[in-house]
Write a structure and sequence with these properties.
A five-stranded mixed sheet has the order 3-2-1-4-5, sandwiched between helices. Strands 8-7-6-9-10 form a five-stranded mixed sheet, sandwiched between helices. Helix 3 links the parallel strand 4 and strand 5. Helices cover 42% and strands 18% of the residues. It is of the alpha/beta class and 336 residues long. It binds 5'-O-[(R)-(carboxyoxy)(hydroxy)phosphoryl]adenosine and zinc ion. The site of zinc ion has 4 residues, from helix 4.
Length: 336
């Protein structure tokens, strides 16, 4: 079964064709990073307008790259939430238009289900993750610990009570004067600094909680920077990044460990933009070793937003013929 996926929930206009939920045949993504960088973050109105400019050419290009036509497509999958409403509406409207014009069935996909499904995709014929597994989703908008069953259904164990992990990365990057999106830059600098230079707080919350909180950490980093500047001391950017990353990773690993023990999971999957972080990948692999279970990650290029993950997430539903109606809407907030 070949599914055309469309993703426009934030600042990437992406289309992909995925075979049987696991094999990526082609993907085209128009990134808006340069467009938003000068504002220090995504400007929703600018994002939706650019999606309108890009969507048709991105879809047409993915057909050319896959050397396919509509006759090769069995279903159309599209992110219907959560995300920026204007951005989501462009993808949903395009998908509905294509579905109406071609008679192909439609599947509305939850963006987080997409991030989880990214770990089930392979780029080189290898094997991706197969549910059931425990999944930590860490992106710019979300930090969620999910138990995923064999039928790709989710039970939410916990999530952030304030900032998402990626949001904390981006905010700290901004405090340090690094360009948007700051996560990858903080990751690079962290590898050149001392993780024990500053004792930033680790919010572990109650003993039995699978929730997260990163706003205190962000404030602690801010206070340290302000204190040093007021004293005329240099801010050692590499050390701040390394110490911040150590605090984030320690909390993410500790909560995942608790959840793995609690659920008896045999596999831990880490997904979302922050799953591209090298420090987090290393620490999660170490945790899996300690628990004698396996740790799996999506291919790096499928960690951040993309349409392949949306097509992959739609596959279990498409196999059962559980289609969305043409009245499908876009939702800025959408429960899993
Ligand atoms: O999943 P994603 O593309 O968008 C959302 O759905 O939010 O994630 C983007 C987030 C940004 O906050 C970005 O800074 C962060 O992922 N990110 C990273 C790394 N690469 C991307 N954070 C830490 N280390 C990285 N290497
Ligand atoms: Zn995302």
């Amino acid at each position: 079964m070949n599914i055309l996926g469309i993703e426009t929930s934030c600042d990437e206009t992406s289309a992909a064709i995925v075979q049987d939920g696991t094999h990526l045949l082609a993907q085209v993504t128009a990134s808006q990073i340069d467009l938003h960088a000068r504002f220090g973050g995504v400007v929703p109105e600018v994002a939706s307008r650019q999606h309108v400019v890009d969507i048709t050419r991105v879809v047409e290009q993915v057909f050319r790259d896959a050397n396919m036509t509509w006759s090769n497509i069995d279903a159309i999958a599209v992110t219907c939430g959560p995300g920026l409403l204007g951005s989501l509406l462009v993808g949903v409207s395009a998908a509905k238009g294509y579905a109406l014009a071609t008679g192909k069935p439609l599947v509305g996909v939850h963006h987080i289900a997409g991030h989880v499904a990214a770990a089930m995709l392979t780029l080189d014929g290898g094997t991706g993750a197969t549910p059931p597994f425990l999944c930590l989703v860490v992106s710019g908008g979300h930090t969620e610990l999910l138990s995923v069953d064999a039928k790709f259904r989710f039970t939410r164990l916990g999530g952030t009570r304030d900032d998402a992990a990626g949001e904390a990365y981006d905010k700290v990057a901004r405090l340090l004067g690094l360009a948007y999106p700051g996560g990858p830059k903080v990751d690079d600098l962290a590898h050149r600094g001392r993780p024990d230079a500053f004792a930033f707080p680790r919010a572990l919350l109650e003993d039995d909680s699978f929730d997260f909180s990163f706003s205190g950490l962000k404030s602690a980093v801010n206070n340290e920077i302000v204190k040093r500047k007021n004293r005329g001391q240099a801010v050692l950017v590499e050390d701040v990044c390394a110490s911040f990353q150590a605090a984030v990773v320690e909390v993410l690993v500790e909560k995942t460990k608790r959840a793995a023990v609690h659920t008896g999971a045999r596999t831990i999957v880490v997904a979302g933009g922050v799953a591209a972080n090298r420090g987090l990948r290393e620490a999660m692999s170490q945790l899996a070793k300690e628990l004698s279970i396996s740790a799996m990650f999506p291919p790096i290029e499928l960690c951040t937003d993309n349409a392949a993950m949306i097509a992959a997430a739609a596959y279990p539903r498409a196999k059962q013929g559980r289609w969305s109606p043409l009245s499908l809407n876009a939702y800025a907030q959408l429960p899993l």
